Amino acid sequence: QQESLIREGVSGFLVFDWQIQFADQKQEFNKRPTKIGRRSLSRSISQSSTDSYGSAASYTDSSDDETSPRDKQQKNSKGNGDFCIKNIKQADFGRREIEIAEQEMPALMALRKRAQGEKPLAGAKVVGCTHITAQTAVLMETLSALGAQCRWAACNIYSTQNEVAAALAEGGFSVFAWKGESEDDFWWCIDRCVNLEGWQPNMILDDGGDLTHWIYKKYPNMFKKIKGIVEESVTGVHRLYQLSKAGKLCVPAMNVNDSVTKQKFDNLYCCRESILDGLKRTTDVMFGGKQVVVCGYGEVGKGCCAALKAMGSIVYVTEIDPICALQACMDGFRLVKLNEVIRQVDIVITCTGNKNVVVREFLDRMKNGCIVCNMGHSNTEIDVASLRTPELTWERVRSQVDHVIWPDGKRIVLLAEGRLLNLSCSTVPTFVLSITATTQALALIELYNAPEGRYKQDVYLLPKKMDEYVASLHLPTFDAHLTELSDEQAKYLGLNKNGPFKPNYYR
Question: Where, by residue number, does substrate bind (predicted)?
Fold first, then answer.
């Protein structure tokens, strides 16, 4: 059975010229750094460089070697040295990690198979700034199979899996990233991706908006040839809307974060599983009976609360939005203000996407041993800077775990210095990332192939038809069988039998 994705323009629907073969789909489918030099203490100023997807489950630690990757000259087996990573010798191990991830990313593998005959990204030069993990590697290699050239940097100083970066470099990808970058390293890596004589990017894939920000700041003329931006994070999308509102957005942009397949899968299900993993790996805490306050009840907050409740924790929620607040109440959580419970809770988790949610006043009032962590993209939610004062002592007890000790002996347990917990301290479920990565790939294809004039200099949402297509690519994994509408039923509901089944405004 074949179906063409519908063709509509600026109204929101994408144009997708190649055929979808659903029959084929069923067959297929990382001691606090103390070394001197560039690897200084990572006190990042960037709102998104220091937090986002990153895996502390990377089996190679950035502190293994004092030499900065920037001071090394490395080449892969083919003599190519257009990359900067920790250790190219880890490539074989990284390749095995990637192969494992491929098994849980059916949609990307299906798209890659289709690329044997078609190259919808032929001529595309994609510059990316995301978490460099095994899952991202599958996405990058899929984009390459679809015809794109890729240059990549990490959106998080702790998120890179060094062995995966090595495998990508060995495979010919220009990757500039390693686990434990300094602030200076971070921006240097982004610049190396963008600033290459004779190579001009025409597509941007961003996570957090730092890459887009850097190009606007340093190389604004590049936007004359850039066809579009694909952004997947709350923080990055917020930055894009600010640019659009100010009239400074000079290319079309796709807001992947607010697609249904990102919000209701990646944000919810990914965080529901990874919050427990991150907390367990760093603190060995037992959740039963613990009092936890989760700041924010969006999709990330919902996932965190559901997991903690299931483990027997007593969960409180803070929220500014009355709709989300009512959802929290009806899901059985007590809605509170943070100052009402801050003295009694055992764990504080932020996931609002805002700044200064947990300020010094609250940190001073926490009980001894309180665990403090962040599940939002940016490191702005917890006021970590206020803890860098002479009267407080910092003690690194294990990777990504600091005890901050007050003069009276009280200590709190701060995880990942307030950066994104799951990708800094553990891993995330590959299958869920497959959904987001597929959406990113399709958004790149659409923007790259869209005729001039279809998209204006604004931020666009993905249509339901694309969301439904991404979901359908993953159903065969579960041996799931969709019910089909009869002609009479479709007419009664006023729907096309093949979808979309939800209006475009449905979120």
Answer: 133, 207, 232, 262, 266
pLDDT at 318: 98
Residue 312 and residue 288 in contact, taking contact as beta carbons nearer than 8 Å: yes
Is residue 71 a known part of a binding site? Answer: no
319 is in an annotated binding site: yes
Residues 367 and 389 in one domain: yes
Q: The domain that contains 209 carries what CATH number?
A: 3.40.50.1480
| Nearest Cα to Cα of residue 429 among 163, 135, 96, 58 | 135
300 is in an annotated binding site: yes
- CATH code (residue 281): 3.40.50.720
Q: Which tokens belong to 381?
A: 């939610």
What's the CA gap between 257 and 234, in Å, rounded? 6
Q: 291: which residues sit within 8 A by CB, 6+ positions away?
A: 313, 314, 316, 341, 344, 345, 346, 347
pTM assigned to the model? 0.79
The residue ranking higher by pLDDT, 39 or 246, is: 246
Distance of alpha carbon 234 from alpha carbon 354, whole angstroms: 10
Give residue 337's domain range.
Answer: 269-425
- Other beta carbons within 10 angstroms of residue 225's beta carbon come to 12
Say how far apart CA 389 and CA 393 lie, in whole Å. 8
Domain for residue 121, yes or no?
Answer: yes
- Do 115 and 214 share a domain, yes or no? yes
Is 299 annotated for ligand binding?
yes
One-character DSSP codes across 76-139: -TTS----B-S-GGGHHHHHHHHHHHHTT-HHHHHHHHHTTT--TTTT-EEEEEE--SHHHHHH
The continuous run of DSSP H or E covering 318 comes out as strand 314-318
81 is in an annotated binding site: no
Q: Answer yes or no: is 302 a known binding residue.
A: yes
Q: Is 262 annotated as a binding residue?
A: yes
pLDDT digits (tens, 9 = 90+) for 28-53: 333 434 433 433 333 333 444 433 33
In 452-497, alpha helices (H): 464-474, 487-493
Residue range 304-325: average pLDDT?
Answer: 97
Task: For the beta carbon of residue 77, count every other beta carbon within 10 angstroms.
Answer: 8
Tokens representing 296 are 């924010």
Check the annotation: does 156 bind a ligand: no
What is the total count of domains within the chain? 2
Does residue 235 sit in the same domain as residue 284? no
**Strand pairing class (347-350; 291-295):** parallel
